[in-house]
Design goal:
With about 130 residues, the protein is mainly beta. It folds into 3 domains: about 50 residues; about 30 residues, no CATH class; about 30 residues, no CATH class. A hairpin with a 5-residue loop joins strand 1 and strand 2. Keywords: Cell projection, Cilium, Flagellum, Repeat.
Length: about 130
């Protein structure tokens, strides 16, 4: 079984970097998620005893006094950090500046969907899958 410092990639693409003991996460280690988020934690027998999740944009999750997107304040994190845009300029995603969506296509989270071709391409316009 895995033991010592190392890295392990799970089937879904999530990576673990840190201490391992008898095949389990043990001690300090970090999970890196494919979308860019990370969970840094202290592990005991494969379970986190304490830790902190940070989203891809740098926003740190807090389980107490969480004020982001709470029903009263629906601004994106970049709007909280940089301020709101002038009237008439809408921010539709957390990205600032936003992605350029090709005409007639839809942003579907991991790429663009073209309803005419029924194909989804990634953000570099490389084929991902048929819809």
């Amino acid at each position: 079984r895995m033991h010592g410092q190392g890295s392990y990639t799970l089937a879904a693409g999530t990576e673990y970097h840190g201490a391992l003991r008898d095949g389990l996460f043990e001690g300090r280690g970090t999970l890196l998620f494919p979308g860019g988020g990370r969970f840094c934690a202290v592990w005991h027998r494969g379970r986190p005893t304490e830790g902190k999740y940070t989203f891809a944009d740098g926003l740190e999750y807090k389980d107490k006094k969480w004020h982001y997107c709470d029903g009263y304040d629906r601004r994106f994190y970049t709007e909280i950090c940089s301020g709101l845009k002038p009237g008439g300029i809408s921010q539709l995603t957390n990205l600032d500046p936003p992605r350029k969506i090709p005409d007639g296509c839809y942003d579907c989270g991991d790429g663009f969907y073209n309803p005419e071709t029924r194909v989804i391409v990634d953000y570099r316009l490389r084929f991902l899958r048929n819809a």
